[in-house]
Design goal:
The complex is a heterodimer of chains A (about 290) and B (about 500).
Chain A (H helix, E strand, L loop, with lengths): L4 E9 L3 H10 L5 E4 L15 E3 L3 E2 H13 L4 E3 L3 E6 L3 E6 L2 E12 L3 E3 L8 E2 L5 E3 H11 L5 E5 L3 H12 L3 E6 L9 H9 L5 E2 L2 E7 L6 E6 L5 E5 L2 E4 L3 E3 L15 E3 L10 H18 L1
Parallel strand pairs in A: 1-2, 1-8, 2-5, 8-20, 10-15, 11-18, 12-13, 12-18, 13-14
Antiparallel strand pairs in A: 3-4, 6-7, 7-8, 9-19, 15-16, 16-17
Chain B lengths: L1 E8 L3 H10 L6 E4 L16 E2 L10 H20 L3 E2 L3 E5 L2 H17 L5 E3 L1 H7 L9 E5 L3 E3 L1 H14 L3 E3 L4 E7 L2 E6 L3 E9 L5 H5 L7 E13 L10 E5 L8 E4 L5 E4 L3 E2 L10 H14 L8 E18 L2 E8 L4 E5 L2 E5 L9 H15 L24 H10 L6 E3 L4 E2 H9 L5 H8 L12 H12 L23
Parallel strand pairs in B: 1-2, 1-12, 2-9, 5-14, 12-21
Antiparallel strand pairs in B: 3-8, 4-8, 5-7, 6-7, 10-11, 11-12, 13-16, 13-17, 13-18, 14-15, 15-16, 18-19, 20-21, 22-23
Classes of the chains: A alpha/beta (about 290), B alpha+beta (about 500).
Chain lengths: ~290, ~500
């Protein structure tokens, strides 16, 4: 399989909101191959079951719309396929249960989204028990397997943290506190209203978690007040972290410091967007720009 | 009651290597481990350094074993199919005290017969390690220093011992041991065993286990160490294993470029009481950060992906005080290997314990064999073990061929470290029963996202392969469920 070199005009890596929109807009004039690691297209939208995408749609509904539009184009789609590396000679190495293959392309759109910053990057003391998750991990687990814990502390207050906190409260779990370093909550105003205020989630501002307690499963955290230095224990069986998102540009690592002109970053792997609408607008604009220049 | 020729207590690095060495004899071997998996105690947190032997006094067991072990380490890792690198080490300091220490260690190393040692002037030190802070006064280069993944090594010894017939029993802490006419009777939480000889490799519990039948001789006072792991984006930042010899008393900084390409920073040396067992201490983290700023100021600590802590078994002599045995302040610097009528105890084995694990295992096994009257060799014994196929270490053609054989190797589960579903499944088939067990065998969850993206997939494989519900999957044994609470409540 490795010997067969497939060729395409444009390789789009990632089948989330950005990749779907970019592939759709580029497909009018070019051969496009879209590669997605999961079995289903849609990316993180699929686990965002709340409303608020493109108006009042849920993430999966919004994704379904994008996928339906893509189906009307000539874009070739390969799901369950991982891009292992991008090479300066404009080839990509793909891995799937079918084998390895190398694809040659003229241009490439990187739409790999972002990953969540973890608590382990912070200088946090204490044990490393079970029950510490990023918000995205919890969101996916909730969808696939149900609740992760009963008493939850949320560290960080971005949109995902607030939305997942609401999901947990709605499923009968108790959010003990949302702990935020800044003097106000992060995220969109509508999430603060619809998640934190509506569900009366206790908020500790100007505070952080600086120690994890418990053996086996987490039994609590030590919350430090950044102004007074005072520490206090909060009992919990789950710590959910919403410490921000980092664009996932891992595939650029082999390409040098200056990105080659045949590569475009699109969506959250370029910079983290507040709303999906911005992602889609930029992806469509890329289609227009590249359509004219080559 | 089950009968065995030799019972090994504890399945850390030492227990696994002892079991491996015992299976080379025509003996039945049963390993009793308190936890659910191998290498969960002292062996869990380790710098993974393979020392050359210039640190220890001439003429001691430690020095003899360390030199031999260092020489043989490449062969050992080839036999066991464990990644091993020998970047060499550089010990350096910033003043007169460290300079004296370095010259003493150089002289000691020469006496011990450590090959290739060289004292380096500052210019030569900076040529090798440009990121060191200004003011280095002297360096001691040891080309033979190497590094290995401690888990990979211990798990390889475990699998090899098991393949050669050792019977590993997990979740069986030894609660009681007594001498009988035939040898020893041991009771665990799950059964009773009759053994003709016992090798005690119980790590932090080794003194306590020994005292089930013997008078106290050595007591262990655990000390703790904190470590930081930096992302593999920093591969190449340092080229050697770096040892900083501080001017003031206490432990300096150690930086290890690991075989997997990450940077391991540590360990601080502190009383265990500063934090609960196995917990990272706040003060320890601060010390590490301060030392980094002082010694390698441009090291980007924001690339930290993990902090963890480990325990060391510091051995002390004991004395009687009011009818009680208590540890004195007399620390024991040598390895303590006691042979007491068929009870062989390895007590307080710390640095260079990992380096010497195979040699100590062989030593303990030969003592047990002697006690049992010199049994014959096990003719079926093979020292060779093959590791899990690592997709990311293969050529494109090999990787493709592997996927054709088993399509699960085509699906990447851990994106940070490029680890496939095939590897995760194989880890479970070889004995991983927890998410951390998979991590120790494959590296899945050790990258920059620390399992945020692969933990669920790993847990799902554990559930499928063991035919258990996902709610029974644990992070690292009983009491550490990944999912808590019932669905649909």
């Amino acid at each position: 399989m490795i010997n067969a070199m497939e060729e395409t005009d444009i390789l789009v890596i990632g089948g989330g909101a950005a990749g779907l929109a970019a592939a759709e807009s580029l497909s009018a004039r070019r051969r496009v191959l879209l590669v997605e690691r999961e079995e289903r297209l849609g990316g993180v939208l699929l686990q965002c079951v709340h409303r608020g995408f493109g108006g009042e749609q849920t993430g999966p509904a919004y994704a379904a719309g994008s996928v339906a539009r893509l189906a009307k184009t000539a874009v070739q789609v390969r799901t369950g396929t991982h891009v292992l590396s991008l090479a300066p000679d404009r080839t990509a190495l793909l891995s799937s249960p079918r084998g390895l293959e190398r694809v040659r392309f003229d241009r490439c759109v990187l739409a790999t989204g972002c990953r969540e910053r973890t608590i382990h990057a912070l200088p946090v003391a204490g044990t490393r028990p079970a029950g510490i998750f990023t918000a995205g991990t919890v969101q996916r687990l909730l969808l696939d397997h149900g609740p992760v814990g009963e008493r939850i502390v949320v560290l960080g207050s971005g949109d995902i943290g607030q939305i997942v906190a609401r999901q947990l409260v709605q499923s009968g779990r108790r959010v003990v506190a949302m702990v935020e370093q800044r003097d106000r909550l992060g995220g969109l105003a509508r999430n603060r209203r619809d998640c934190v205020e509506t569900y009366h989630i206790p908020v500790l501002l100007r505070s952080t978690v600086d120690e994890i307690l418990g053996e086996g499963r987490i039994s609590g955290v030590v919350v430090r007040d950044l102004d007074t230095g005072r520490r206090r224990r909060l009992a919990c069986d789950t710590l959910l972290t919403a410490l921000g998102l980092v664009p996932d540009q891992d595939l650029c690592r082999g390409l040098g410091a200056d990105l080659p002109d045949w590569l475009a970053l699109c969506g959250n792997c370029d910079y983290v967007h507040e709303m999906v609408d911005g992602v889609v607008r930029e992806a469509a604009a890329l289609g227009a720009a590249w359509g004219e220049t080559f | 009651m089950e009968h065995t020729d030799v019972a090994v207590i504890g399945a850390g690095l030492l227990g696994c290597f002892t079991a491996r060495a015992l299976t080379a004899f025509a003996l039945s071997v049963t390993v009793l481990e308190a936890r659910e998996d191998v290498c969960t105690g002292i062996s869990r947190a380790n710098t993974g350094i393979v020392y050359t032997g210039y640190d220890t006094k001439p003429g001691t067991l430690k020095t003899a074993l360390c030199l031999q072990a260092n020489r043989d380490f490449g062969r050992l890792c080839r036999e066991l199919d464990v990644p091993f690198s020998r970047p060499g080490s550089l010990l350096f300091g910033f003043g007169p005290r460290s300079e004296r220490v370095l010259r003493d260690k150089f002289a000691q190393g020469q006496r011990n017969g450590v090959p290739g040692l060289a004292l380096l002037e500052p210019a030569a030190v900076y040529a090798r390690e440009p990121h060191l802070a200004p003011g280095v006064t002297l360096g001691l280069y040891a080309p033979g220093t190497g590094t290995v993944d401690p888990w990979a090594l211990g798990i390889a010894a475990f699998e090899n011992a098991r393949d050669n017939g050792a019977d590993f029993r997990f979740c069986q802490p030894v609660l009681h041991m007594e001498r009988t006419p035939e040898g020893f009777r041991l009771e665990t939480a799950a059964g009773t065993y009759q053994a003709r000889a016992v090798v005690n490799c119980a790590g932090l519990q080794a003194a306590a286990v020994r005292e089930l039948t013997q008078c106290p001789a050595v007591r262990l006072v655990p000390s703790a160490a904190d470590y930081l792991v930096l992302d593999d984006t920093l591969a190449g930042f340092v080229r050697h294993i770096l040892f900083h010899e501080p001017e003031e008393r206490g432990k300096g900084l150690t930086i290890v470029p690991t075989v997997e390409g990450a940077l391991l920073i540590g360990p601080t040396d502190r009383p265990q009481g500063e934090a609960p067992a196995g917990a990272v201490s706040r003060q320890g983290l601060e010390r590490l950060r301060r030392l980094c700023a002082q010694v390698v100021p441009d090291l980007p600590l924001e690339e930290t992906i993990r902090a963890f802590a480990g325990l060391r078994p510091d051995p002390f002599a004991v004395r009687q005080e009011g009818g009680q045995w208590v540890p004195t302040d007399r620390s024991i610097h040598s390895f303590t290997v006691l042979e007491e009528e068929g009870l062989i105890s390895l007590v307080g084995i710390k640095t260079p314990g990992l380096t010497c694990a195979a040699a100590l295992g062989e030593h303990a096994a030969s003592l047990a064999a002697q006690h049992l009257g010199g049994p014959g060799r096990n003719v079926a014994f093979s020292p060779e073990r093959r590791g899990i196929r690592r997709a990311h270490a293969l050529s494109e053609a090999e990787r493709d061929a592997l996927i054709q054989q088993d399509p699960a190797y085509g699906t990447v589960v851990c994106r940070c470290r490029d680890i496939t579903l095939g590897e995760v499944r194989e880890a479970v088939r070889r004995g991983a029963v927890t998410v951390d067990g998979v991590k120790r065998r494959t590296g899945a969850g050790m990258g920059r996202c620390q399992g945020a993206r692969c933990m669920q997939a790993v847990a799902e494989v554990l559930a499928q392969e063991q035919n258990i519900p996902l709610r029974s999957v644990t992070k690292d044994g009983p009491g550490s469920p990944i999912l808590l609470g019932q669905p649909g409540e």
